[in-house]
Amino acid sequence: MTRGERLFIGGRWVAPELGHYEVTDPATEEVVGLAPEASEDQVYEAAAAAREAFDGWSRTAPEERARILARTAEIIRDRAGPYAELARAESGATTATARGMQVAVAAARFDRYARGALEPVEEALPPQINEAGPMGKAGVLGALAVRRPVGVVTCITSYNNPWANPAGKIAPALAMGNAVVVKPAPQDPLSVFRMAEALAEAGAPPGVVNVVTGSRPEVGEAAVAAPDVDMVSFTGSTAVGRAIAEACGRGMKRQLMELGGKGAALVFDDADLAAAVAGIGTTFSFYSGQICTAPTRVLAQRGVYERLVEGLARYAGALKVGDPRARGTVVGPVISAAHRDRVEAYVALGRKEGARLVTGGERPALDRGWYVAPTLFADCTPSMRVVREEIFGPVVSVLPFDDEEEGIALADDSEYGLIDYVWSGDVARAFRVARRLRAGGVGINTVGRNMEAPFGGFKQSGVGRDVGSYALCAYGELQSLVWPG
């Protein structure tokens, strides 16, 4: 078992006032390490340290910020092996996912925002000719729109990716000149301490990055409520997002919210079914379905409905479920016993609602670990809770539709709107349908993402956009400068 971690506040490693709690490997149910249990006062201290560091960091030359972020990426890559093993142990991700989609993506994000620190922050606006009037003489006014850092940003991250998700918040926030307080998910916070070590070693000044953790909701609440915090960047459930938004509203704090999803995948009669099955099948395998962008709600045109269901069943049945360290494992455990119980409750609910269970539905026969078998429901109806609610596990529901209009209506019949998908051999139709979907993103014949494209949700799936240069805008405030020409 690793040592008990300490909080990182103001550039110092600080003993937690409320002791430690255990972080458990979802695959073995063994203790991976001890995470600090911060007090509310310590969270406020972290925010105050960030406030003190902000002024100097915001005035640091962009080239210096870029150097520190690039050096952080180098350190992460140099230690990718042990970092990936820690990520695998605390999150339950397969070895390949921990290496390629967690640690490697985190390093790539620090590299991306090392370049982002050098992007222009000023935009010249057209001059305006003003006639004489109550405001003064006739004249020409010039103007600049200037992007300024927000200030102190609290970054609250999700458990499904303990490297890429925090890096996607910390790196652009720092690139813009903000200071941060990071509050990782309680289930797998240990990787973020290694990230903080890398940043400090790379030269991040004391207080620019602070890390506080805890298993109690009061820790996250304090990280939002702290008077020194100007903005909250949150990834997690819509229910928690609403509570954070209410708290931010009282202090007029800026928000960036990436919340739940129930992605619709429209599969038309002329689609490449093999490609559609492979894309939708990532719900079963990628993070064991614990991902908000997953195409969990499949809408199949009747001409391909049965073939698509059969293809998904074969795909799910061929996936190896088990020890994420073992070669060939595709589906690892979910994050906790409580979450496994939640997913299994939804599977039981789907049966009760009358959906046809095609495959899965039973707990895998493994001696230990919190596993859920890839599960496929067919013959679902739009009102079923397994169709409407985010399950966050390897569960897919399939509904039929007749024509384009019905497919679009079914896709938009959701409180969520993060990412939808369209599979069709008719590219014109695919783009036509995509433009009508009320979602922040639409994958057309792919589940891949362009990491420069804006990412965020419509409706209950979030507020704001990040990724690429859009993240720099999200962590900045616009200021106008006006002068007589």
What would you note in describing this structure?
The chain is an alpha/beta fold and 485 residues long. It has 2 domains: 7-259 and 461-484, 3-Layer(aba) Sandwich (Aldehyde Dehydrogenase, Chain A, domain 1); 264-456, 3-Layer(aba) Sandwich (Aldehyde Dehydrogenase, Chain A, domain 2), CATH 3.40.309. Helix content is 39%, strand content 21%. The strands form 5 sheets. A 7-stranded mixed β-sheet has the order 14-15-16-13-12-17-18, sandwiched between helices. Strands 9-8-7-10-11-19 form a 6-stranded mixed β-sheet, sandwiched between helices. Strands 5-6-20 form a 3-stranded antiparallel β-sheet. Helix 5 (164-175) links the parallel strand 7 (152-156) and strand 8. The termini are far apart.
- Into which percentage range does the β-strand content fall? 15-25%
3D shape: globular
CATH architecture of the largest domain: 3-Layer(aba) Sandwich
Radius of gyration of CA atoms, rounded to a whole number: 24 Å
Placed side by side, the strands forming the largest sheet appear as 14-15-16-13-12-17-18
CATH fold descriptor of the largest domain: Aldehyde Dehydrogenase, Chain A, domain 1
Give the full name of the CATH homologous superfamily of the largest domain: Aldehyde Dehydrogenase, Chain A, domain 1
